[in-house]
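Each field is set out as follows.
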Amino acid sequence: MSDSKRQSIILTGVGLIIIGAIILGFALSQPKVAVSSLESDASVQSSQQTYDNEDVSLQTKSNLQNYDESNYSQSDSGNQNDQEASVSYPLNLNTCTAEELMTISGIGEVKASAIIEYREYLGGYTSVEQIKNIKGIGDKVYEKISPYLTV
């Protein structure tokens, strides 16, 4: 066997080892799936199959769905009211969450996430006026929300 052929075989082997190591590193860095979530998914699927196999009229199914939806909507609105009641103003821009920011009138999900991203970029706010540097927060919006914020 010639030297050039031997070198190409060795380089191919080294390349395969490197690719294998990269794939192994990627696989090990992925988050683990909890066994309990897999078990609960399996139990939900089996209960759905049982439910589908039973002779239940369409009207009863729709009544059950309406009942479940009304319960969920009531519990969701209760959670929002509880969250708004538990927020105390003024909010510290360096420690507040996006959910807390969204309780202020004039701040939606996009502005709240922009405020937090800018906080991470700055390493922390030194004054409330720095939020004027965020796109969508001008003088009018600042005047409206500044009483609810602190540093």
Observations:
- Residues 34-41, 46-84 have pLDDT under 50 and may be disordered.
- The two ends are 74 Å apart (CA to CA).
- Residues 45 and 51 are 10 Å apart (CA to CA).
- Residues 58-86 form the longest helix (29 residues).
